[in-house]
Design goal:
The complex is a heterodimer. By secondary structure, chain A is of the alpha/beta class. Chain A has helices spanning about 5-20, 45-50, 60-70, 90-105, 135-140, 150-165, 210-225, 245-255, 270-280, 305-310, 315-325; strands at about 5, 25-30, 55, 75-80, 115-120, 145, 170, 180, 195-200, 205-210, 230-235, 240, 255-260, 290. In chain A, the strands form three sheets. Chain A has a seven-stranded mixed sheet with strand order 3-2-4-5-7-6-12, sandwiched between helices. Chain A is globular, with a radius of gyration of 19 Å. Chain B is globular. Chain B starts with 12 loop residues before the first helix and ends in a 15-residue tail after the last helix. Classes of the chains: A alpha/beta, B alpha/beta.
Chain lengths: ~325, ~375
């Protein structure tokens, strides 16, 4: 099976969907002639032209809203946020219009758009460019949100998102763009709402998503090899819809849960997961639920501090050991 | 600063022409001269219908039957009636929260609109949207949007889709004078001009963004002239004469359809009521005389009635009959709304996700809702 980068996997998904459906188009800042700020859409403008790959001015509210309006008439725009942090400029469009038009029309309108772009910290760029708003998106019924942690999922989830008839946010990660994974050549889809068990185990359940799942995977290996702790690792992949059953089944087996995410802790995704576990698997728990989130402050600029602020292997292991005490 | 910037082209020629035109010119304009007697009566019925409907909804609001806000369109009816009468099969409209007039003008029934305001299951949005969020995609009407200027990029998107699909049509996006100062609108003006999108923005300038007069909210009083900064054609006209609205809007819409060029149209109008019915101050930030003056000389119903009486389309008896008919229809809609049930509680979680409502195979994995 060929190994390709996360970036290439997303590009393959976008290209395949553009070729499959004439209504799919991509718009965003620098996506066409510049070849993408992070080169995700590199070469696509040359291949597919002005109609399908569309450079926008720096006007997130306008092009987000435009995508929503166009989707009402059957266009399937994939809009790129150069950073998902910039979606905040388009807050009304994405969090009022994309999320609620279907509801407020009593189901008469739907909004098949994809909002994609990197949503991560750890890049030494300060608070305004380091948001991880998957919790914010998930808090808006009507929206869906996925966080692929690897190239295989990135491709499969992107294709599912484009074919979905509801607005879907795909949270990418700049630190993953250059990393390689095995991705099959034949077509496949990763369905929304299906978690992936990255590693099986018996002593504790680690629930994570996005790049944190990859860090947690390293931590889980270390826990096993160095500390003799067998951790089961669940990669959520999809935040909303959420695969509750896979989480619960695992926790019922292991009796312990460690939640790892890059979100800030207060009302983060893990706050919801934590509620789920205590409510539906309370009797199975042998210890309080622990979590490792970003340290609760705006994203700090200084690299050594930021590397500590977001979850890393050391912090995960430290908390896993505490959970086992 | 480049001195080259001084070459900005003025685009006021058409506006000057409109300002100088007499009322008779509008009636005689080709787009109006071709109207049949029945078509003229339809315009009259639409305008009177909106008025009678809103009067009845006000009564219901005051009786506590309608919750939330009630933004009445009374005084502005000729704008929606005139423009929707120009719509072809590929033309679409979208507006803000003062949407009752546009909804009825595209042919939505009084029953579904009144029931929506009553919060009933028989409402156009099943009672999930309310007064500000009427939708009728089957009639090319895309809402009904609650946030000032929030609908403007959506209007651009509808028009973008028409062009993308190679359809000969346009989108008319209505907004109020308060909306021109929102960033989303200005971003959108730039985008539609840059991309040649067939959208006609219609600023229904009723002089007040809630309680703040135009003088106190906008630095440039000729609102449509902002279009010049974006290289967009613009024009302004009065909105109490439906024939004037049609004459001016027809040119803008035809141009948009034929050349994909956007247009910014400012239509000066007036609302008799407050920003919403809850706006208790609406006779404090403006004078009673100002309101009475408009009612006396520029009321859209009276203006059209006089025109239709003088050309023999209408008689006093027929005018009375139409008014009674529409009042009866409005009364019946209130009864329909009153008698209709509220949606069952299970409906709270429908119409959230298309995939859930349509129970799609293979897509419905995981939890979509989080009920303990």
């Amino acid at each position: 099976m060929p190994r390709i980068t996360y970036r290439e996997a997303i590009k393959q998904a976008l290209s395949e969907e553009i070729e499959r459906d004439e209504n799919v188009c991509i718009m965003g800042e620098e996506v066409a002639q510049y070849n993408g700020a992070y080169k995700v859409t590199e070469g696509m403008w040359d291949k597919y032209g002005d109609k399908r790959i569309i450079d926008t001015p720096i006007s997130e509210a306008a092009f987000s809203g435009l995508a929503i309006g166009a989707s009402a008439l059957g266009i399937r725009p994939v809009i790129e946020m150069m950073f998902m942090s910039f979606s905040y400029v388009a807050f009304d469009q994405l969090f009022n219009n994309a999320s609620f038009c279907r509801y407020m029309s009593g189901g008469l309108m739907n909004v098949p758009i994809v909002v994609r772009g990197p949503a991560n910290g750890g890049t030494n760029v300060g608070a305004t460019h380091s948001h991880t708003p998957e919790n914010l998106v998930a808090n808006h019924p009507g929206l869906k949100v996925v966080c692929p942690s690897n190239a295989y999922d990135a491709k499969g989830l992107m294709k599912a998102a484009i074919r979905d008839n509801d607005p879907v946010f795909v949270m990418e990660n700049t630190l993953l763009y250059g990393q390689e994974w095995e991705v099959p050549e034949e077509e496949y889809i990763v369905e929304l709402g299906v978690a992936n068990i990255l590693k099986e185990g018996t002593d504790m359940t680690i629930v994570s998503h996005g790049r944190c799942a990859m860090i947690a995977l390293e931590a889980a290996k270390t826990l096993e090899e160095t500390h003799g702790i067998s951790a089961e690792l669940i990669d959520l992949r999809s935040i909303r819809p959420l695969d509750e059953e896979t989480i619960l089944e695992s926790v019922r087996k292991t009796g312990r849960a460690l939640l790892v995410e890059e979100n800030k802790p207060y009302c983060g995704v893990d706050a919801q997961i934590s509620h789920l576990i205590q409510y539906k698997a309370f009797d199975y728990l042998d210890a309080p639920i622990h979590r490792v989130s970003a340290i609760d402050a705006p994203q700090v600029y200084a690299k050594p501090l930021e590397d500590w602020q977001i979850p890393n292997e050391e912090r995960i292991i430290e908390r896993a050991l505490a959970l086992m005490e | 600063m480049s001195l080259g910037m001084a070459t900005t082209q003025k685009k006021t020629a058409t506006a000057d022409k409109t300002k100088g035109a007499k009322q008779a010119d509008f009636v005689a304009a080709p787009v109006n001269a071709k109207l049949s007697t029945e078509e003229k009566l339809t315009l009259y019925r639409t305008i009177v219908g909106i008025r009678r409907f809103e009067e009845r909804s006000l009564q219901a609001y005051n009786q506590g039957k309608i919750g939330g806000f009630l933004h009445l369109y009374i005084g502005q009816e000729a704008v929606a009636a005139g423009i929707t009468s120009l719509m072809g099969p590929n033309d679409h409209i979208i507006t803000a929260y003062r949407d009752h007039g546009h909804a009825l003008a595209v042919g939505m029934s009084m029953n579904e609109c009144m029931a929506e305001m009553f919060g009933k299951h028989t409402g156009c949005s099943k009672g999930k949207g309310g007064s500000m969020h009427f939708f009728a995609p089957d009639k090319n009407f895309w809402g009904g949007h609650g946030i000032v200027a929030g609908q403007t990029p959506l209007g651009a998107g509808l028009a973008f889709a028409l062009k993308y699909k190679g359809l000969h049509g346009c989108c008319v996006c209505f907004l109020g004078d308060g909306a021109v100062n929102q960033g989303a609108f200005m971003e959108t003006l730039n985008l539609v001009s840059l991309w040649d999108i067939p959208v006609v923005f219609v600023i229904e300038n009723n002089g007040y963004s809630m309680g703040t007069s135009l003088e106190r909210s906008s630095a440039e009083k000729e609102l449509a002239s902002r279009a010049e900064g974006f290289g967009i054609e613009w024009e302004s006209c009065d909105g109490h004469d439906v024939f004037e609205v049609r004459e001016v809007a027809d040119r803008a819409m035809t141009r948009a359809r034929d050349s994909h060029k956007p247009f910014l149209l400012e239509i000066r109008t007036y609302r008799y009521r407050g920003h919403s019915v809850a706006d208790a101050n609406h006779e404090k930030y403006r004078t009673k005389e100002e309101i009475e003056e408009y009612k006396k000389n520029k009321d859209p119903i009276n203006v059209l009635k006089e025109q239709l009486l003088s050309d023999g389309t209408l008689t006093e008896d027929l005018a009375k009959e139409i008014s009674n008919e529409k009042k009866a229809e409005a009364d019946a809609s209130a009864k329909f709304a009153e008698d209709s049930p509220v949606a069952p509680r299970s409906e709270i979680q429908t119409d959230v996700y298309w995939e859930v409502d349509n129970d799609t195979e293979g897509r419905l994995k995981g939890s979509y809702f989080f009920n303990d």
